[in-house]
Amino acid sequence: MTDSTATKRVLSGIQPSGQLHLGNYAGAIRQFVEMQHTHEMYIFVASYHALTSVRDPQTMRQNTRQVVIDYLAFGLDPAKAHIYLQQDVPQVTELAWLLACVCPKHLMDKATSYKDKVDKGIAASIGLYTYPILQAADILSVDPDFVPVGEDQRQHIEITRDLALKFNHAFGTEDDPVFKLPEAMIRADAGVLPGVDGQKMSASYGNFIDPFMAEKPLRKRIMKIVTDSTPVEEAKTPETCTVFQIFRALAGPDDPRTSELAERYRAGGMGYGDAKQALCELILDHFGDARKRREALMDDPGYVDQVLRDGAEAARVKVDEVTSRARAAAGL
Ligand code: TYM
Asked: What percent of the chain has pLDDT over 70?
């Protein structure tokens, strides 16, 4: 576990609470796809977390399946990443209980996501309140080094580290800690990607852009992005414009296409409609292969089942090892 030359391990997950969108891609999935070439990957579907908001079993089944298909379409390779469903590795919920018993209540009281979600109309359940403990269990269950996530998950990774420390303090020794402390991996250039209304892009705000949308509705959606009313001929500020922010997150800040578009903003003479066209072309180009792969995957349910069986089998081996270690440390 302390061998610094060993391949580093990564864990992350996404809730199947709606269609995956550009925010998920820019904040998280893009990192998964890049890291799979050099890291040992555990990427799962956080269905138990989604149960805090999804109440329809059919929707749950469909969304869960779709997240897996989309992981694969975006380029996750099951030969390089263990892809699994949370409910196929139930030891994680046992680990959540062990962590809950060392979690001071005030640590949950200060988690901002609970209040945000209740304000948005999600039922104020105990599951929602203790959501960060289950997330800590997901993470700690495979001893990862890194957790690639978007900026909005930073506090959850801090809570995970707090809980690992508390458990280690209660049941481990300095030389032999029970849990390894993982680090959040948050892309500095991604930030929180805005949606068409300029607020954080989110499946539940109805402001998201789905990169798998058919071309015509995709164009219509992009044309809906809210911009200010600076006239065409006047110079514009790229950094404060949602269209540019999404463009830069996808193309990358150092890409020549990004600097070229920024130049056109500053020079004046370009309307926001042109910037939106450029964003649309970028999306179609960037996700061209993913869109084709997704179509093929939709027609191959047997393959998707096999990916999930293999992924769960591999995850269970590792999670069993960690859960047994934690249980034994606590005298169970
Ligand atoms: P979730 O399902 O809301 O989002 C999945 C990932 O997408 C990122 N993300 C964004 N990044 C940038 N801009 C946005 N607008 C945007 N919207 C979403 C999120 O930061 C996240 O990385 N609690 C987690 C799911 C989870 C998890 C875990 C993650 C459960 N257990 C263990 C990592 C490790 C969540 O609700 O993410």
From this structure: 98
Token pair 């929602």 in the structure block, residue: 128
**H/E element holding 146?**
strand 146-148
Looking at domain 215-286, its CATH class is mainly alpha
Q: Indicate the CATH number for domain 9-191+301-330.
A: 3.40.50.620
Whether ligand 1 lies within 6 angstroms of the CB of 46 is answered as: yes
Both tokens assigned to 264: 């056109």
Residue 211, ligand 1, Cβ within 6 A: no
pLDDT of residue 4: 62
Domain ranges of the chain: 9-191+301-330, 215-286
Displacement of CA 218 from its chain's centroid (Å): 22
pTM, two decimal places: 0.96
Question: Would the pLDDT of 17 be above 60?
Answer: yes
Q: Judge if the beta carbon of residue 137 lies within 6 A of ligand 1.
A: no
List pLDDT tens digits, range 205-255. 889 999 999 999 999 999 999 999 999 999 999 999 999 999 999 999 999
